[in-house]
Task: inverse folding
């Protein structure tokens, strides 16, 4: 059972539910499992817009009268889907609950207007992390797989590095050739693919758009726009610097991390940092979708070179400081420096493989596998 299962079930009792997230992270599988628990009817309750017959049945509203739950997959590909779904919900909410799933474009399209405001809850599903370990797989094995084949369900469960490489290549081709073109009029898809390859080698470091622009012979504005598209596609995410002056912070270079840990091209330390970033983003977005607080993931760095990998902001205020180290159990001086100045609720260092964990005052190094495997949901 995926970590969002019970929360979606509860929300369906009051409103429609939309499930977004990266391509192939398990949205359809989750929806079908919720559907199976919700009804004994086995027909006319799951509809995929990509299927010709399903598409006709959707437009005819050919739903089984005894099925309390109706799943609509990829419905956002219908040009009039918002108004159609609004009308469907308003007229049939007493007869059916509606669960809507789709690719990353669903999130983009739903933001394009407020015609359905107040009629749905939105949840973002993430790949597996240490906080969500499938039954029968231990913590250490999960950690090993996350570093080698990533957390997306198919390669994670198969645990075959060759098959995982094939899966990643096919997924990237699908995103660039289909998803991006469906969302934006991008003509330089090949160059955008080259940008993606370059970003895979720069995980955890500050990414200067002007440098990438020179390397790829495009403008910095184009680089920024392409990265924004890849963020919308749930391929990667930017972590911007923290500053009390947000206008100044946004002009500084971001750091880039990938939803698929296996996309990272670097040493084990870089892949470990990406693993931690994924966990923190997953936790932040869950807390936003469930609790309603606004969470942001940042990093902090000053002119003297003090730097901490991650800052979690809760409703704009510093809540946590987290440093990620693969094997160094000694508490980072920069963590102590910023903890003293920013006064977070929590500050700690996550260590992947240290034989000895250190502490300094009330700051401690924590075993990352143990700490990240604590459920936050």
Result:
């Amino acid at each position: 059972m995926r970590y969002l299962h019970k929360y979606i079930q509860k929300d369906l009792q009051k409103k429609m539910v939309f499930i977004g997230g990266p391509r192939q992270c398990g949205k359809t599988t989750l929806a079908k499992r919720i559907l199976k628990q919700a009804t004994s009817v086995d027909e006319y309750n799951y509809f995929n817009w990509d299927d010709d017959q399903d598409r006709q049945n959707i437009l005819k509203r050919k739903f089984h009268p005894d099925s309390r739950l109706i799943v609509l997959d990829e419905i956002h590909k219908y040009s009039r889907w918002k108004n159609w779904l609004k009308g469907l919900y308003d007229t049939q909410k007493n007869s059916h609950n509606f669960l809507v799933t789709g690719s990353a474009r669903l999130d983009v399209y739903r933001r394009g207007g407020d015609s359905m405001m107040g009629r749905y809850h939105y949840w973002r599903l993430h790949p597996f992390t240490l906080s969500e370990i499938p039954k029968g797989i231990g913590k250490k094995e999960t950690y090993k797989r996350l570093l080698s084949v990533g957390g997306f369900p198919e390669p994670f469960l198969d645990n075959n590095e060759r098959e995982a490489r094939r899966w990643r290549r096919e997924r990237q081709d699908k995103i660039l050739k289909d998803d991006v073109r469906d969302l934006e009029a991008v003509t330089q898809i090949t160059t955008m693919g080259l940008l993606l390859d370059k970003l895979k080698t720069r995980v955890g470091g500050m990414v200067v758009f002007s440098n990438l622009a020179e390397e790829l012979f495009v403008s910095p504005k184009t680089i920024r726009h392409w990265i924004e598209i890849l963020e919308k596609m749930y391929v990667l995410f930017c972590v911007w610097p923290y500053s009390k002056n947000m206008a100044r912070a946004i002009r500084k270079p971001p750091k880039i991390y990938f939803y698929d840990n296996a996309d990272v091209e670097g040493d084990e330390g870089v892949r470990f940092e990406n693993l931690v970033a994924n966990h923190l983003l997953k936790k932040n977005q869950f807390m936003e979708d469930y609790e309603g607080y606004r969470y942001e993931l940042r990093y902090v760095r000053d002119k003297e070179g003090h730097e901490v990998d991650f800052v979690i902001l809760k409703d704009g205020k510093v809540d946590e400081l987290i440093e990620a180290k693969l094997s160094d159990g000694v508490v980072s001086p920069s963590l102590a420096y910023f903890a003293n100045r920013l006064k977070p609720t929590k500050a700690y260092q996550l260590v992947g493989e240290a034989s000895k964990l250190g502490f300094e005052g009330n700051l401690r190094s924590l075993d990352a596998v143990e700490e990240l495997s604590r459920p936050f949901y």
Q: What stands out?
A: The first helix runs from residue 5 to 11. Residues 68 and 259 are 34 Å apart (CA to CA). The chain has a mean pLDDT of 93. Residues 139-372 form one domain.
